[in-house]
Every structure is written in C-alpha cells, then in structure tokens.
Amino acid sequence: MKLSYKKLWVKLVEEDMKKTEFAKNAGISSASLAKLGKGANITTDLLLKICEYLKCDIGDIVEVVPDDTTDESKEPK
C-alpha cells in the first residue's frame, strides 16, 4: 500500500490555488512540495500542517492505494 496525494491537488484546484502559492502560505518548503508532487512519503507533521492550513481532515487530502507491484510472499496460498 502507498499514499496518493491526488485529493490534495484536486482540493487546490477547487480552491483556485497554485501549488507554489499554497506551499508559501502554508509554510511548506519547496523540497516538501516536490516530495508531494512525486508521491513520496512525507511526515505526519507535514500532513497535519497542510490540514491545518486548508482546514480539512487528512482523509480529504490523502488516499491509501494498492501498490503497483505484488509481493508473492504476501499472497494467500
């Protein structure tokens, strides 16, 4: 399983907010913004900071999605 930030990008479009404007106003570094853009792992503190700025819950900006790769050792026999 991995996290998808697609909901965050949709929310920014709904709020008519550019990514750079969002990052600056929310106090998020350009490195963290790049991680979000790549779908990389970020800290819970950063997620909470984003939620506080957007006045939303984590579930409004993050979604758990299945991994693209399957691990045969985890498949039921």
In the CATH scheme, the class would be: Mainly Alpha
- The number of helical segments is 4
- Report the major sheet: 2 strands, antiparallel
Q: How big a fraction of the residues is strand?
A: 5-15%
Compute the CA-based radius of gyration.
Answer: 14 Å
Order of helices and strands: EHHHHE
CATH superfamily: lambda repressor-like DNA-binding domains
Which oligomerization state do the chains in this entry correspond to?
single chain
CATH topology: 434 Repressor (Amino-terminal Domain)
In round numbers, the mean pLDDT is 89
User: Which shape, going by the Cα principal axes?
Assistant: globular
Tell me the count of domains.
1
Named at the architecture level, the CATH assignment is Orthogonal Bundle
End-to-end C-alpha gap: 20 Å
Write structural notes for this entry.
- The protein is mainly α and 77 residues long.
- The protein has a single domain, classed as lambda repressor-like DNA-binding domains (434 Repressor (Amino-terminal Domain), Orthogonal Bundle).
- It contains four helices and two strands.
- The protein has helices spanning 6-14, 19-26, 30-38, 44-54; strands at residues 2-4, 63-65.
- Strands 1-2 form a two-stranded antiparallel sheet.
- The longest helix has 11 residues, at 44-54.
- The radius of gyration is 14 Å and the shape is globular.
- This is Helix-turn-helix domain-containing protein.
- One of its GO terms (molecular function) is DNA binding.
- It comes from Anaerococcus obesiensis.
